[in-house]
Structure formats: C-alpha cells, structure tokens
Amino acid sequence: MSPHCCEVKRLQFFFHIEAAEIEVVRIMETVYNHLVEMVIAVGINEVTGLSAAEPQPPPLFHHENKLFCTAFDTQILAAISNHVAVFPLDAEPHDPNYPPQTDRTRCPKYDADTQRNKRNIYKTWTTSKGHSRTPGRRKHTKNYSGSLHGRSSSFCMFDFAHQAAASKSLSLKAADLPLNAETLQSIVTICFPDGAYVKDEEQSSSVHYLVLTDVTGDHSYAICVTLYQAYTATKFSIKIMFQCLEDDRWQCSRYYDRGEGRGLDHVIYVPLCLVTISKQPYFTVLHDCLSKLAEHLKSDEEEWKSILKEFTLHLTSVPIPPCVALSISFQLLQEIDIEVTSTEYPGIMASDFPLYLAFLHLTLDDIILLLTAILTEQRLVFLSAHQSLLVLVCQVGKSLQHLIYPFKWLHPYVPLLSWNLIELVEAPGTYIMGCHSRHQHLIEKVEGLVTVDLDIGEVKVCPSLNVPAMPSAPVKVFTVAIHQARRHIDWLTSSRATVFTYQSYRTKQNEHCRNVNKLIQMACIELMSNLFREVFLHTNKEKRFFHKEQFLEGLDTADKPFYEMVLQTDLFGEFLKGLLSPSHSGCRRSQTLSTLSTQISFVSERSESKVLSLPPFVYGLNHLYVDNCLLEVDKVLKSDTTADIRGACAYLRGVYLASQNKRTQALEAFCEVESYNSRLFPLRFVADILSSLSDDEKKAVYGSFMYQQSVLLKEAEHFQKDQTNMEQTIIMELSEIPEADIDQQGFTELVQLLFDLIPDREATNRLFDALTLGERTVVDPYTFEEFYKSWKENQLMLQQVKIPADLLDPEEILLKVSDMCKCSCGTGRLALTPKRLFFLHGGSRKYREVIQLHDIKHVSITQQRSLLKPISALKIVHNDDKVKSFTATLKGDSLEWRHLLNEMWAGRLLAREMQNPNTLDKAAQNVLLMNAFIQSGRSEFANHNGYELEEVESLSFFYQERCCKLNLAPEMKFLHHDLDPSGPMQERTGVMTILYTAGLYRGSTTQDCEPCLWCGLENGKLLIYNAINWTLEIQLTLSSEKLTCLVAVQDKVWVGSADGNIYTVKRRTKSTSQTLSNHDDTVMDFTTVDNDRTIAMEIPNQPGSRVQLDCFLITAQNEIWLGVGQLGQIVIYYGDTLEQKHLIHMGRHSITNMVLASDQIWVGSEEGHLFVYSSFSHKLEMTFYAHKDSITALCTAADRYVMASSGKRDGTVSMWRTNSTFV
Fold first, then answer.
1. Residue 530 and residue 536: Cα distance in Å, rounded?
2. Distance CA 1134, CA 1149 (A)
3. Residue 1084 CB: number of other CB atoms within 10 A?
4. Which of the residues 52, 397, 439, 860 has the least number of beta carbons within 10 Å of its own beta carbon?
5. CA 754 to chain centre
6. Which Gene3D superfamilies has this protein been placed in (predicted)?
7. CB atoms within 10 A of CB 386
8. Each residue of 1022-1033: pLDDT tens digit?
9. What is residue 196's DSSP assignment?
10. Is the whole model's pTM more than 0.85, yes or no?
C-alpha cells in the first residue's frame, strides 16, 4: 500500500451531532444569546504594507503629498469569537492557546483577595501557562519572486502585487467563526466606506455603525471604532549602478520613538478599525466598550492581541437579560462598569440607542411622510455627512419594530453603502439604503426614490411617485402624543439632579434615553393601532380569510388611496399572516383612539430594575467566571421574590448551566422559568438541548416529574422533531489535513471519501489535472486544504438557505448561492439548483423562479451602465423571445457564474435527451467541484491561484459534450438511456459484449427474476444491471482477459472469454455455476440451435481467408445479411438459393456488428456510428453518431430497444428506441 493510501486511512473525522460526542470539550462553551458574537480588527500594518487600492475611490481631498490622498487596501488582522482566535497574516493563523485551556485542580482559589489583584493574577497566569504564541505545526512557505518578508529593526519591504492578491483570501475554516467568508470579506470594504487613508497627523478615534445581512436574511449589527497608530513610511528605492531610483511604492514599519522622523522617512498615522458583531442593536453599550478598548490599545500597542482576546472572550460570555425587570452589569477590562438592559416590550428588539434622533433631524410632517413611504414600500435613500448618524436613523425607520411595530421590513436594508456599491440604488424593487451626502449628485440621477437628507432635515419624494397621504385622524392623535412626549422629555431633563462622576452621568444618560425611547415607542404603537385596528374586524380566523372589499368600503374616501396601496405590500401580507395564525391572540377591540395618548402625560421615570452584577472576568480563569456568575444568580434568586426577576434569574441560570454542558440541570432551570414567566422560555434553545441529549439522558428527562408537568418542554420536544426533517445534514470535517503530497490514487480516495461523490474516475482525474495545472504528478497539501475549505464553506452556506419545500422537486438541492447583487427583479441573491435558477429577494426570504435551465437559450457576459462606470453583468436569454432577458450585476463573479450555469444547463439537457437521471447528478457534482475549484484558486496558497478561470473549462465536461452534440440534437430523441459500466472502476474500460435477458417466472404468473442487461468488459468483469430501473445489481470478476460473447441458455448465461474458457452464470442467483475449458484460443461467438443445443466457433491464430466476414443475420424475409468490415459492405443473399440479391456500400465506415429489430437492421461501425436500414426496401433510414469509440456489440430488448456498447475510449452502453417510421 502506498504511503498516500496509508495517509488516507489515518484520517480521523468527527461529527457535530451531539455535544456529548464531541472529542474535545472546551472549558468555555458558548453562552446562549450572548452580547457579542465576535470581534474583528481590520486595517494596515507592517505585514500588509501600503498597497494602493484598485480601483481608487473618487478623491475626497487634495494633499501636496500623494501618500496622504491615496486610498490603500486593508485586510483582516484579527477575527476572534468565543472559541477561536485567528490572525490571518501570522505564520500560524489559528492561536492554539485560545481559549485558554486550564486544569481546574491546579487553579488558585478565586476569593476577594484575587479580585483585588486581578491584573497580577492575569500576568502570573499567562506567564505560567505559556500564553505567548507557540510555533504551529507547519508554515506556508510558498515563495514569490521579488517579495521580501524578513523583518528588520527599522522597516519591512513588500511585494505590493503579492500583498494585494493575498488580501482577497482569508485563511479561515468554514465552521470556525459565526460569520461566513462572504460577510467577513465584505467587512473589509465597509469598515472604510470611503476608502482607507493614512494621515500626516494624529487623529482622534471615530465611531460608525453597520448592519450586516447574511444569506438567510438575518441581520447582525456591527459597531466600528477607527483609531490611528503611528508608523514610519519610506519611499521604495532601487539602486542601479551608481544611481538610486525611486518609485511610487512605500514601505512602512511601526514607529515607537514618538520623536522626529529620520531623514526622508514620514511619520504617518495608519487606520485600525475594531469591529464588534452582535445579534442585537446594542449600539450605545458596545460604543462604550469599543471606546475603552481603543484607549487600551493606544496605550499598550505591543500587547494588542492579548488585550483583544481578553476583551472578546469577556463580551462573548455576557448574556443578554431576558426581560426589562433585570439588568446585567459587568466590569470591562477591570476599569469601567457597563450595564445591559432588555427591551421594554415583548416582540420588539432591544434598542439602547436614541430613537429621538430622527425627530431631531426631521420635522413631524417629514416623519409622517417617512412612515408612509415605509408602509407603502417605497425605495428610500438616506443621506448624511455623518456616517454614524445614517445607521442610527435608518434603524429607527426600519422594521426592527421601533416605529412601525408590529410590521416587519422584509426588503433589502443597507444603511451604509460604501463608495463602490452606490450603483445598488439603481436596483428595482423596494429597499432602505444610506450613503454619504457627497454622493447626492449620483443619487439624484435615479428615478423613483424617496430621499431623506438628514443634514438639512428634508424628505424629498420623486415627482413620478404617488405617495398617498396617511389618514388624518390617526395622524392628529400621533401629533398630539409626540408634542406631549416632547414636553415630558423637557420636564424629565429639567427635573433630573446633577451628578458629578462620569459613571453616574452615563447611568443617568442611559436611563433618560430608555425613558424617551419608551415614550416614542408608545406613540408609534398607538399610531399603528389606530391605523390598522379595523383590520381585525374583517378577518375570519377559522378560514384564514380577510374581507378586503368590506374593509375598504367602510373607509373614508380620502383614506382609501393609502390603504389600497398598503394592502398590496409584503409588509401587510406578512402582518396579516401573523394575525390569522392560530397562535395570535388578536387586538383589543375596546381600545380607543386616545387611550395611549392620555397615558403619556402620566409617564414618569421608570423605577430602577434589579441589577445583576457579574463577577470580574480574569483571562485564564474563565472557567471560574461561569461558576461565580452562577453564584451571583443564586444570590438574587434567594433574595428577591418578584416573579419577573426570579424568572429572569432562572433563565440566566439555565444559560450558564448549558454552557457548562450540564444539560439536564439547565432543563430544570428552564422549567422553573416557565413557572414564573412563560414568555421568557427559550423554546428553540431548549429544543437544541433536547436534541443533544444522549439516549440515557433522554430516558431520564422524559420520565421525570419535571417533564410531565411542563407544557413548554413538551412543545420544545415537538419543535425539535419538526426541525429534524429540515436539518439532517451532518457536518463532517477533517481533523487533520495530509501533510505530504498526495498522488493521484490517494487523491481519488480522499475526494470520494470526503465529498461523498458519485464514483466517477474521469471527473476525479479531471479535477486532479486542474489542481496540478497538468504539470505535476501530486497535489500539494496546501492546495488540497484550500479546495477542501472552499467546498465546506459552500456546503455550510447552502445549509443556511431554507427554500420552501413546495418550490423544489423531490431531491432537488441547492448548488450555489451568490453574493448580494443587483438584478433585473431587485436586490438579492441568485440560487442555482440542478433544474432551475432562483432569485432570493434580499431581506424578505421570498423566492422567485428566474428560469428553468432547459429554457435557457444562452448565457453571456455583458457590460451594464451604472452611476459610477460600466460594470460586468451576467445575461441569461430565454428560448422564448417574448420573455425578457434576465441580468445580474455579479461583477467579478460573472464569469464564474457563466461557467457554472453552462455546465448545469448542458447536464440538464443531456439528462433529458438520454433519459438518464445519473447524468443530471453528475452535472450537479461537476458544478460543486467547479465552484470549489474557483473559490480555492483565489487563495495565494493554492497551486492554481491566478489560473482558476482558465483551468475550470477543463472541468466543464457536460458543456463540452453538449457543444459536440448540438448538430445531432434531432436524433437524440430516440436515445432512451445511457449507462457507464466504467463508473465504479478506477480505469475506463471497453464493453466488449452485451446481452438482454427477459424475466424468469416460477410457475405461470410469479416472476422471480427481473429482466437484466449483462455487460462483458475488456478487463474480464461481468456487470449485471436491472433492466427496469437500470441499477447495478452485481459485479463478477470471471477472467483476467476480456469477455468476448454472451448467450442465454435456459436459466443460465454462458460467457465466452479470450482465455479460451466458457463461464456459466445462474440468472436467478447471479452466481457462477461452472467453467468449461475445451478451447485453446479465444472464444469468439455462440449460437443456439435445435432446442438449445450450443455450438461455439473458434478462430485460429493464423490468418483467415482473403475476405473476413465480421457479422451476419437472417431476416424474416429469408434473407441473409453479411457484414464485410474491411470492405465496408453489406452483402444480401436469397436464403433459399444463396444468390446475391443486393449490395450496400458503407463508404469509409468499417462494419463491426448487426442486429435485427422488428423490420429494421441496425448496423454498428468502428467509427461509433449507427446505421438503420429497412429490412424490406434495404434503404438507409437513419444515421447518427452514437459513441466516441468503436461499437463493439449490439443487442435488442423485445424489439422495443436496441442496445449498443463501445470500446475503451467511450466505454458506455446506450439504449435506443426502435421505430419503423423515422421522421
């Protein structure tokens, strides 16, 4: 066995099925519903160098030194979650010491003295445990000519082209981080929406916000703090002879002196953007956290990695409180106290940012116009010179249930567009977007927009739009409520006592913000209630029906245009769906128009909620942190008797216990939550816990008194069962990538083992040649790792996309999902399946079929005009000229998508023509392999880097096949099926002989042996297929030499071989019976005469007669047809007189065999053609190209089908329909 095969055998796998089965259990498991998902650092350092961005954004300012008015490429410097820390530019990207793994028995006791000396413990712990980075298992050592990576005490030199290419790849495994690779790479751009510039003087830190949308339409919220660090920049110079030449490139290195620059060096300030990602819009809390982190990094730049890891691990361990009655307070970096509160109303997402910002920048009339535009689903674009303001105001207007609750925004939502994505505003459909006001001149060119200018406080409606007026009665009540709220805000401000410490000021400020937000939310909920309360009166919940006409008839004439437009929107449709769902309790009919407004004047400062103070967090003692959190929760449980607070504490107790893998105790805590406040019960999380229990644990839980008494626990069990059928994919990963080069045999075994592919040696060989560029005999481990990683990333992304089952055919799967793009039907994503192309509408999770693949006429790349410049777009033309072409601006991915679509389109057509579903499966497999090949080729570590789009054409097997058969398409309708006997084998081999046998019956009616197709191969193997479903039943190895002929004799099949033996196989059991060894040379053919008496013909070694007879047959007209291959002739004789009747000249074609099917003679040739002659008129009725090699054998199946086999270069068996009248 080769060492590569041994390497394959040593590969170990683990499956993410149950938490108890994971081999490595981390001390710090994920805390459910935690404050921060991950932290990312994006910027420039001495490793990235100063590489000018391509293309350059429009100039923002002018400077006499080009260095300071050039935008530079940025890269991800760090990406850290609660269980992995990745520094992509390091030699070993994954930090093996994160999170710190500790031994509980050797940890110092965590007492009050420890708390007073937290920093000392941290330093002692990191020193004793070797917290510093250790060398990795291997390093990437790919060399690039002209690049210098050595570090000196003064500066580093870089190959800028190499670094620019490297920035496109992030060395992360697919399942390592909460965000997928697409979202991570998009952060690199949107962290610096107008480009990353270096400064000539020190800058203060700045904050802006982002909203990220993943492939499922879910949102994550990013808070970004940009700080500037001192570096030195030196002009890159080359010494030629005695002359020093300078160019436009710059070298940079860290500058620690803080004194004057040396010589021609420039002291520059390089941007570093720190980003926290959260599932909840805690903008204010995370703003404070990041500001403190930036302060620490400025004062301790050398230890930035350690500080960042400690910061991330702490925030990912802080849970979000489940209700407003309980707040959570924690001490960040042992210095400042941070308080996290929950939402005021169930169903509304938490909001700690000021909702009144929109009311400060816009008049009340503009606010009402803005709400009308949102409810009628207009295209909205927000403009401001302050990027942080854009996201906050957009977030107020969007449906994260702040102003339009209970409606939800279902459309694309991009509150901050970077300069190179401005053309997205040209997309059709509905959206909310925001951009810097410097792009206003471009926005004004787009028709049909509602523009919100926050700098001048104005909402502009395009004249071509018809935005109706909101009904006047609810507007008047809303106006009164807002005026009263403003007066109340003034009263709250004037009556608040003065505070003299910063911490007290922040506490009071946050409390004031919460109270103001509550007033605004109450007014907006009242407005929505007054607008749509009557909808409930016209619904029939049992029939799930809404009487739209009755509802409109009861409205005032002036109000009808507003409701007619709103009732057609997706927002209202989703609201109505929730209203008519069985779980919806409905609206209170007795509520009057002025109920809420009269209550606003009596709102006072909210009584302070209970604050749970979490213990100090010490990096390295994180396992004790959870234990101490549980102690603090238990203290509150014992001291407080309020139902809401006890329910919240029980919830937190369950969350912490689950993070320690104490699942049964966590379930007990959540059952306690149900007894206090059922609204706090985390149904989905409990369902996940139940699914992770072992069989013994499930038996104990389901038999317990707790389970018998809990209604929600049983509901979670049913929820978990419902989800099981939807999510049965098992994620399988390599625990170790092979370190040695992989030869072709080892590569084939690895690919089929890891990727669960259809056995296809040729596809694997094509992939091997493409990865090696056809120049090497092995695949290096780096290339294989990148290919495997790309495959897994695509699989994980596809698992996140949930297309409704009624839209897909059985077993139809997703193959590829695009990045967010602008299409003919709006902004969203493309999704490819083996049968069709879908459009996933951004934000709404709605799916629209773009085109069936068999309806595609052709796919091309075109140039489409945009606001900035012409951009590359994918164009799909329909077969029906009346159907408008579909375009998608996929930019750099357009060529990739053209390759994938062409391959799947060709496979779909060939599968239909051949009536072979296996062809469709293989084409889908090819598309997956091509996608992984292209994605991995974008990594600098892959051997095919830079050649991926050229070499991928060699993988487009079915597209090339389709192009070859386009001229023969009319004849393809007679092809019934296609088999590939060489598929399960490592090498392609020829099919030398074939035989069709009908079913066998026991008695008169009972069939105990189905019809079969027998294939004798050149390598001595016999393959037997079920002739009903065309599946392989068995493979027998009979000889070491080729099998030459087959004949059915009663309940056996006789098999002739080139080794001179005749083998008999029982038809019922498919087992060998006996071997006849009476021949000294090749057994060439059989025939049966006189009641199944068998005669075998033997061809001697010496040359035969002058004219070699290749085949013959006798027709029903008593004619003898003789095939003379070397002359290319068919000679027809009278059967009774043996006189020549007719002579058919075949031209240059050499005859190999003939078969009689009904009244037609089918003739095969060495060139792979089939000729069909009439047995009556002797005329040629049809000719077509059947195989790429010689046709080795022909047989018939009850005169309904003719089957043809081919030689080694083709190696397939085709089945053709017979017809006496070809058209």
1. 12
2. 25
3. 14
4. 860
5. 18
6. 3.30.450.200, 3.40.50.11500, YVTN repeat-like/Quinoprotein amine dehydrogenase
7. 14
8. 999 888 877 788
9. B
10. no
